[in-house]
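Dissemination and training. As part of the outreach component of the grant, students in the summer workshop were shown how a complex can be specified as a set of sequence lines and then modelled as a single object. The example used during the hands-on session is reproduced here so that future cohorts can follow it. Participants entered these lines:
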Amino acid sequence: MRKTMTGHKAVAEAMRQIEPHVVAVYPITPQSEIAEYYAEYVHDGIVRTELVAVESEHSAMSACVGAAAAGARVMTATASQGLALMVEILYIAASMRLPIVMALANRALSGPINIHCDHSDAYLARDAGAVQIFTESAQEAYDYTLIAQRIAEHKDVRLPVIVNLDGFTLTHSVQVVEPLEDARAKGYVGDFSPNYPLLDVDHPSTWGPFAMPDYYFELKRGQQAGIEAVPPVFLAAQKDYAELAGRPYEGFLEPYRLEDAERALVVMGSTAGSAKETVDALRADGEKVGLLKVRLYRPFPYTAIADALAHVDRVAVLDRALSFGTYGALYSDVATALLHRERKPILMNYIYGLGGRDTTPQQLDQVLREMKSGDPDQGLRYIGLRE
Amino acid sequence: MAAKLKGWKDLPMGGVVPGGATPELNKTGSWRAERPIWNEEKCIQCLQCWLHCPDDSIMIKEQKMTGMDYDHCKGCGVCAGICPVDAIDMVPEGSAACARR
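and obtained this result:
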């Protein structure tokens, strides 16, 4: 049934249906309402989850690691500085192959302190070993929270999965969302069968052992195998979900009017919505423009990106964070994906929307028009920045 | 000596040690700079050293202290400090007092 709700509520609804054994969470804008909704479900006896009201995000992720190693299904959620505080333990959670699904309400990292959206928090956790998915709408945030559970708990993966949703733009705005019925959502997610659960006292095991130069390298290689196992698992989980829920989800990417495009944008998150409008308007004027939205950010779908973009003449990659001293992180990945293709587009890197700065369809229109001609200088370009 | 090391494919997921890891297999006593020397004649068998040893390196049998586990003792000196009758001396590794033992 179609309902109206915020992105917060959509994520909290998915969590309610998943009903993890443990949720350890600490409030931070713009994530807090996810935790607040979930705390209400616990208080009202709607879920039987153990809600751990920890004293920091470092403790939230630590409690998640402990509970997951014990054999529990666990979830959390955070944003910005909260993720920064979690990152130390997030690396450990990934190395211990613990399937912790978490919403990340994307918010700019300090400083200066800010509460609004950009992707600097997601980029901070880029190399942590967690799977990362970006969503465009409250509906997608709901859907991919369920899908993430299947990916995280797959026997070949067993990794934390971050579901990104743009802070305020998605978390706080009311949208139409069509959740699954509880039984169907629960049936889709299925049961969790943990590896070596610490609470299985008849089969003791040691978690998080010290690893010296003789084994550290091999253990990290094993972790790499875990994230390399994600792509087919992502596709299968997404396909099952798309069939169950009647959604058009397919592939690691969402191409939009890209087949015959001469110019295209590459974006992640809610800006894809504005970009689709812009593409439609320019197409109506006869401009051959298109869009590529990245759903799966880690592991990065290099081959799919190259296949989708190789025929385009000019591509502008939009990064919603600076990676100081180098190109935007998404641009660098897209460039790597195309490096060995014989036919490849001219690439440009635009930085946009830092600290919640609005990016309008008019600005995207301007990008798609200005990239048409002239020599692309290879430096960073900025959208909506005052000189 | 060194056992054949496993390749990455042969290691359990997440670095877990099924069955549990034990320091018994690792002889960590080589880290020690000072060695506790137990004087059996002065010892009153109060077992304070056994209670306080952070590394389970005080060997006991039938509730009596029988000696030091030098394969695992790190030489922290807690046993010598807690001993009420000064029955444990800390001596530098490699010294003459060590060699006699």
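The first helix of chain B runs from residue 48 to 52. Students were then asked to discuss how this feature might be tested experimentally.
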